[in-house]
């Protein structure tokens, strides 16, 4: 019976995640299932809720007065964040070493992003719908996964908080524990490196 329930929830999740709308406005059921399968995401979710209550994150929050649906507003704001993050990654791409790829999950927006690195530098892009569905139901293999939300990234990009502080507060987590080789935040750590860290990362 339990196996059937898990399969049903997984199938429901795949159906939801197959549409663009569902990526931004996922159901409570799918999000709850995702958090259950990804405990590090649950840690970040709890920390983000607390940060929201304490008003330490920058960036606008949706209100009916903005004239857009929550889905459309989140999609628009996420595009702004992606462009800003891409600019930051491009500026840090003067290292030719391959630091590996990662998937970054914006939980409030229910949007997966791909962070890639290589000889051509670092890039960020939206994950393809099929891959989004696969990752949203827990079938991610050994991939590096990073969990946060748009407003946390916006706070970092605005220089209001460092990556180290965000990690310390649990606002950004990953599925890569202490046993994981290399940096548990991959390209994101390089893009958000402070000047004093760039020498250590080979970026100066």
Give the SSE layout:
Layout: H1 2-17, H2 20-24, H3 28-37, H4 39-54, H5 70-91, E1 102-106, E2 111-118, E3 121-126, H6 129-136, E4 145-148, H7 150-157, H8 163-168, E5 173-174, H9 186-191, H10 195-201
Parallel strand pairs: 1-4
Antiparallel strand pairs: 1-2, 2-3, 4-5
Distance between the termini: 57 Å
Level of helix content?
A: 40-55%
Number of strands: 5
Number of helices in the DSSP assignment: 10
* Topology pattern, helix = H, strand = E: HHHHHEEEHEHHEHH
Q: How confident overall, as mean pLDDT?
A: 77
What portion of residues belong to β-strands?
Answer: 5-15%
Tell me the strand order in the biggest sheet.
3-2-1-4-5
* SS-derived structural category: alpha+beta
What is the rounded Rg? 17 Å
Q: What does the main sheet amount to? A: 5 strands, mixed
Assembly status = single chain
Mass-distribution shape? globular
Unreliable spans are 4-26, 199-204
Signal peptide: 1-24
Keywords: Signal
What does this structure look like?
- There is one protein chain.
- The protein has 204 residues and is an alpha+beta fold.
- Strand 1 (102-106) and strand 2 (111-118) form a beta hairpin.
- The termini are far apart.
- The chain is built from 10 helices and 5 strands; from the N terminus they run αααααβββαβααβαα.
- Helix 1 packs antiparallel against helix 6 (129-136), helix 3 (28-37) crosses helix 4 and helix 5 (70-91) runs parallel beside helix 7 (150-157).
- Helix content is 51%, strand content 12%.
- Keywords: Signal.
- Residues 1-24 form the signal peptide.
Could you give a short description of this structure?
It is built from ten helices and five strands, in the order αααααβββαβααβαα. By secondary structure, the chain is of the alpha+beta class. The longest helix is centred in the middle third of the chain and has 22 residues, at 70-91.
């Amino acid at each position: 019976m339990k196996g059937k329930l898990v399969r049903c929830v997984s199938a429901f999740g795949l159906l939801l995640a197959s549409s663009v709308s569902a990526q931004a406005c996922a159901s409570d059921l799918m999000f709850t299932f995702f958090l259950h399968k990804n405990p590090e995401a649950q840690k970040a979710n709890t920390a983000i809720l607390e940060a929201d209550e304490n008003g330490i994150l920058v960036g606008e929050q949706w209100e009916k007065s903005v004239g857009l649906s929550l889905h459309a507003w989140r999609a628009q704001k996420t595009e702004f964040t992606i462009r800003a993050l891409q600019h930051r990654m491009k500026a840090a791409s003067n290292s030719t070493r391959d630091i590996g790829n990662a998937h970054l999950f914006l939980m409030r927006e229910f949007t997966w992003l791909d962070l890639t690195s290589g000889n051509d530098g670092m890039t960020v892009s939206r994950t393809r719908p099929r891959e989004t569905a696969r990752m949203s139901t827990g079938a991610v293999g050994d991939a590096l996964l990073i969990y946060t939300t748009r407003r946390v990234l916006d706070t970092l990009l605005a220089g209001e908080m460092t990556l180290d502080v965000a990690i310390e507060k649990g606002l950004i987590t990953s599925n890569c524990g202490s046993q994981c080789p290399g940096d548990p935040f991959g390209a994101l750590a390089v893009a958000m490196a402070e000047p004093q860290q760039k020498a250590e990362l080979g970026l100066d």
